[in-house]
Amino acid sequence: MNSGSKDPVRCVLSIAGSDPSGGAGVEADLKIFCLLGVYGTCVITSVTAQNTLGVQRIYHLPADLVGDQIESVVSDIKVHALKTGMLGTMDILDVVCHKIRRHNLVNLVVDPVLKAKDGSILLEEDAVQLLKSELLPLASVVTPNLQEAEALSGLKIHDVEDMKKAARLIYELGCKWVLLKGGHLKKDAVDVLFDGAQFYEYRAQRRNGLSVHGTGCILSAAIAAEMAKGTDIPEGVAKAKDFVSSTIAHAVKLGRGLALARLFVPFPADKSSRKDVD
Question: Which UniProt keywords apply (predicted)?
Fold first, then answer.
């Protein structure tokens, strides 16, 4: 990991779509970076019209413009960690991979966003294979939810043991760590972290019953922020999950649809939920 001890200010780059509701996408990422004490930069891949009710329209930016944004940031500012979210098209995905390799960008967190909660397609189906073959091998951490993990692994996931099987298959695609999110399991939410040798489990009780917008974005951004600060992966995931739990516990209902995580006031983290598993 790039410790960057000579750089007093840690910088994180978010490459993702824009969400005008502020609950997900680069808008949420920048708020999270600020709350966690790192400097946030961003590259917008797609502009969406969305709110707490769903996604109404999507416009993917030209791939060369996405590439130019990345070039502008990383040629001028030292990036200590980065995350990808919504990438939209094969052309955008290809450019992002090229720029990451060209500039040797490290500490990459990949949130493999495929669909919105309302089912809207956020990555074209013909780009999924490129995601698996080109982007995941560049990733330090990949953070799929259950549906994304099924798409990446080809397995149906019903329980924690299925999650571990899928994590092994996703790890074999070339990433260093897999964090498979089990928030949609019927019982308590269990996330599984795997480094190719050891599993870690992170358990949390379900909170206030609200369905919250953008939790995947929040988690991946928080992990990237911790990586930029030099936190090791298991501890960074634990801190990120505690941060997410706090924002969900204090979520606010501002619109007519999903609740929004509270990203405008920092909350003390709960006790770490990590449990090492042999």
Answer: ATP-binding, Kinase, Nucleotide-binding, Thiamine biosynthesis, Transferase
Write out the chain in H/E/C secondary structure. Answer: CCCCCCCCCCEEEEEEEECCCCCCHHHHHHHHHHHCCCEEEEEEEEEEEEECCEEEEEEECCHHHHHHHHHHHHCCCCCCEEEECCCECHHHHHHHHHHHHHCCCCCEEECCCCECCCCCECECHHHHHHHHHHHHHHCCEECCCHHHHHHHHCCCCCCHHHHHHHHHHHHCCCCCEEEECCCCCCCCEEEEEECCCCEEEEEECCCCCCCEECHHHHHHHHHHHHHHCCCCHHHHHHHHHHHHHHHHHCCECCCCCCEECCCCCCCCCCCCCEEEEC
pLDDT tens sequence across 205-260: 766 567 899 899 999 999 999 999 999 999 999 999 999 988 888 898 999 999 99
Beta-bridge partner residues of 21: none
Name the one residue in this structure whose structure tokens are 């801190």. Answer: 239
User: Is pLDDT above 60 for 4?
Assistant: no
The span from the CA of 165 to the CA of 275, in Å, is 18
Percentage of residues of the chain with pLDDT beyond 70: 89
C-alpha separations of 254 from 22, 118, 266 in Å: 11, 18, 19
Q: Sketch out the chain's domains with CATH numbers.
A: 11-260 (3.40.1190.20)
Q: How confident is the model at residue 192 (pLDDT cuts 50, 70, 90)?
A: very high
Structure tokens given for 273: 């939920």
Q: Tokens for 266, please give them.
A: 């920092």
- Tell me what pLDDT residue 265 has: 61
